[in-house]
Amino acid sequence: MPLIEAGGLRQYYRLDGADDRPVLIFSHSLGCDHTQWDRQSIALAPYFRILRCDLRGHGATEVTTGDYTIEILARDVLALADALGIAQFAWCGLSLGGMIGQWLGANAGDRVTSLVLANTSSRFPDPSVMENRIRTVREKGMPPLEESVMGRFFSPERVKANPPAVACIRRVLLATDPTGYAGCCAAVRDMDQQALLGAIRMPTLIIVGDRDVSTPWQGHGEILARQIAGARVERLPTAHLSNLETPYSFTRAVANFLMPEPADALAAGFAKRRAVLGDAHVDRAIANTTDFNRAFQELITRFAWGTVWSRPGLDDRTRRLLALTATAALGRWEEFRMHIRTGLAGGLEPCDLEETLLQLAIYAGIPAANTGFQIAREESGKETA
Predict the structure, then answer these.
(1) Amino acid 11: pLDDT
(2) Tell me: the pLDDT tens digits for 13-25?
(3) Which of 86, 111, 118, 348 satisfies CB 3.0 to 4.6 Å to 343 for a cystine?
């Protein structure tokens, strides 16, 4: 288990992604832990070095007694970054994580490159809500909060359906240490960061849930948007934990904000084309380029590879399978064979091909799937020969 002493606190953290990528830190909500960001971490790990940690009093990070403050929690994160040798980072925090992000943006602007503040607020208008929670968990533990907190985390129909994401967060909530939860409740209760917002100068994205009763647009998101210069806003049809209710829309919003389209789509296209199809294939294509087909090759590279294939909304594996389905359905067997060959070399497995071709058989016909299976068998044999 990756634990580290940082700032006098034993902290749990997890790093994903290549070491040479820019760092993106995800920070979770009150009553959650680092697993809140599993979906986003998987999707964005090819582009960032992703750091997730459990906040003080949550998950596997040390619990300390007494009331916490947003500054204490923010300094915990800075100490962790220092201990891991991370000088600068982008920040994505939801609810409590967004409150910490505001403090960092205003007080550690040299460290934070970009801010995503999701389902959060600069001031909690009714301190009695958190005061009641503190009293409840100190006297009776976490179970009495389950119904009310889950009803704020997720929309009613999602709570009723209890899909895996909801069930997981429920377990995390109930397993949270009452002392740590109460300490963070105090940080939210006592927070008033409205005077700090004008000091936030880095690019900022504010994500708001249209069904969020905890930090709605009115009185919360609107204040952030108005007082943080140049802030962008993304509204999602969710309750409080927007990254779990609409994980793909949330991830896309973050990716579009942190990863603008490359200035040189042609160069980006060649890099992506090589990553997916391999150097040998691209080198042959370049060698066969003439004045007659040069514009066509650049069109493919710039728009197919530098634009569509480079979008982070789908991972390369999914795009490979979609390419196989489309080329087979249209009978473009030369292209299909090329994508089979380069796909197997790039991480696809025979089971991926089997599932794709079974899907093809249902929606594009048995003859197409039959030919597809034959070609896939031939290319798989080459791969294992």
Answers:
(1) 98
(2) 999 999 999 999 9
(3) 348
